[in-house]
Specification:
alpha/beta, D-Maltodextrin-Binding Protein, domain 2, five-stranded mixed beta sheet, three-stranded antiparallel beta sheet, 15 helices, 10 strands, signal, ABC transporter substrate-binding protein
Length: 350
């Protein structure tokens, strides 16, 4: 998953292409590759330093892509959104895991489909330890720092605001900061609260005593968080694949889904080893705080599992919530958008 602070195509259309397998060479090495990798190549723009991008790294490092007949290549996630979109449109990239923040992009024509929730929440709304803000209702009229307009932290906060009777468009002021500067902005009094993601949220809590007002990781089914609209055991991040690939080569698309499903299950059983792979292989940059212990804890908290049934239920829920918050069109047909946005393959068949 890319950092949640980056808005993926909310204001533009995305055409998510597929890399065609077996590029026309008749050499012995090409024939060998064809035999080893039944479905050919996939290119995943996964390298962005994100801890919760673990399914990409583990599917590659532990051989799940290869097991399912895919020759995978992990590449850098472009910082420039237009480059990312162009890469998908041209067929340079194949699939990516991301958030329910993609729903507005899909409504506007993005040719991608969610296929199962892949892990639970990693987003929080925090306030400094001495803040007078104790509950969501106290946010009315306040300034909230976020990584980007249309980011998942903004959406999560907006869901809680509307459940508290506060209009997220007019009842608060949103102010954008770089993700790594959000906590400092709050400590300096430049904002009253921050919507952010792990590991930044976890670090602010552990090192600076920030207090949690909203947490979209409601694995325990906490009634207080549920009342804020934080769905019990709800998925935060999803696997996305190309609509074109689903239509033209569903067997290959299923191979991608199987790879991620197996990787997510492995992560859930081996969080510490996953953390070591992320740090030792350079997928995640080591710091004093970003160490094996803390990365392991974050991975444990996110409860990795690619679940097709509950993923669809969760996306349906967020469709309703984002429409109510004003981030989807007023005339949105929720069932129609869900059909457009979600693919539920039968993985028992190729």
């Amino acid at each position: 998953m890319r950092k949640k602070g980056i808005v993926f195509g909310l204001l533009s259309f995305i055409a998510l292409g597929t890399v065609l397998a077996g590029c026309g060479s008749s050499s012995a090495s090409s024939k060998g590759t064809s035999k080893t990798y039944k479905y050919g190549e996939v290119t995943i723009p996964a390298k962005d330093g994100s801890i919760c991008n673990a399914p990409n790294y583990i599917a590659y490092e532990k051989g799940f892509f290869k097991k399912n007949g895919l020759k995978a290549k992990l590449v850098a996630n472009p910082r420039d959104i237009s480059d990312l979109e162009a890469g998908f449109a041209s067929g340079k990239y194949d699939a990516q895991n991301g958030d329910f923040q993609y729903l507005p992009a899909i409504q506007n024509g993005a040719q991608i489909k969610a296929v199962g929730g892949i892990h639970q929440g990693c987003i929080k709304l925090l306030v400094p330890k001495n803040s007078s803000i104790k509950r969501v209702k106290d946010l009315k009229g306040k300034t909230i720092g976020i990584p980007a307009q249309g980011s998942t932290p903004q959406y999560v906060t907006s869901i809680a605001l509307q459940h508290a009777g506060i209009d997220p468009k007019t009842g608060v002021t949103w102010k954008v900061y770089s993700t790594d500067l959000l906590a400092k902005a709050a400590e300096k009094g430049q904002v009253d609260a921050i919507g952010t993601v792990d590991p930044y949220a976890y670090q602010a809590q552990q090192e600076s005593g920030f207090k949690t007002i909203i947490d979209n990781n409601n694995n325990s089914g906490n009634a207080k968080m549920a009342a804020m609209g934080m769905k019990s055991k709800g998925a935060c991040c999803y696997l996305y694949v190309s609509s074109k690939l689903v239509k033209e080569n569903p067997a290959k698309a299923k191979a991608i889904v199987r790879s991620y499903k197996q990787a997510a299950a492995w992560i859930n059983k081996h969080p510490e080893e996953t953390a070591k792979i992320e740090l030792n292989k350079g997928y995640v940059s080591k710091t004093k705080f970003i160490n094996v212990k803390n990365v392991t804890q974050i991975l444990k908290d996110e409860h990795f599992e690619l679940n097709l049934k509950t993923g669809k239920e969760d996306l349906s829920y967020y469709t309703k919530q984002l429409k109510q918050a004003g981030y989807l069109k007023k005339n949105t047909n929720n069932k129609q958008l869900l059909k457009q946005a979600y693919w539920y393959p039968d993985l028992s068949k190729n």
